[in-house]
Amino acid sequence: MEISVMSGKGGTGKTTVSINLALSAGEKIRFLDCDVEEPDAKIFLLPRMERIEYSTVSIPVIDEKLCTYCGKCAEFCIFNALAVIKKKILFFERLCRSCSGCWLICPERAITEGKRENGIIRYGEVGEISFMEGELKAGEETGYSIVRDMRKIPYKKDLITIIDCPPGLSPTLLEAIDKTDFSIVVTEPSETAFHDMRLSLELLERLKIPCGVIINKSSGRESFIEDYCSKKKIDILLTIPFDMEIACLYSKGIPFSIEIPLWKNKFRDIFKKIVKSGKSL
Amino acid sequence: MEEKDTDIEKEEDMSKINELIVISGKGGTGKTTIVSAFASLAKNKIMADCDVDAADLHLIMNPEIRHRENFIGGTRAVLNQDKCIKCGKCIELCRFDAIKDDFCIEEPYCEGCSVCSYFCPVKAITMEDSISGEIFISDTRFGPFVHAKLGIAQENSGKLVTEVRKKAKKLAEENKFNLIIIDGSPGTGCPVIASLAGATSVLIVTEPTLSGIHDMKRVVELSKNFSINPSVCINKYDINIELSKKIEDYCMKNSVDFYGRLPYDENTTKAMVARKTIIEYSSGEFSNSIKGIWIKLEEKLEI
Ligand code: SF4
Ligand code: SF4
Ligand code: SF4
Ligand code: SF4
Question: Would the N or C end of chain A have less CB density within 10 A of its end CB?
Answer without folding.
Answer: C
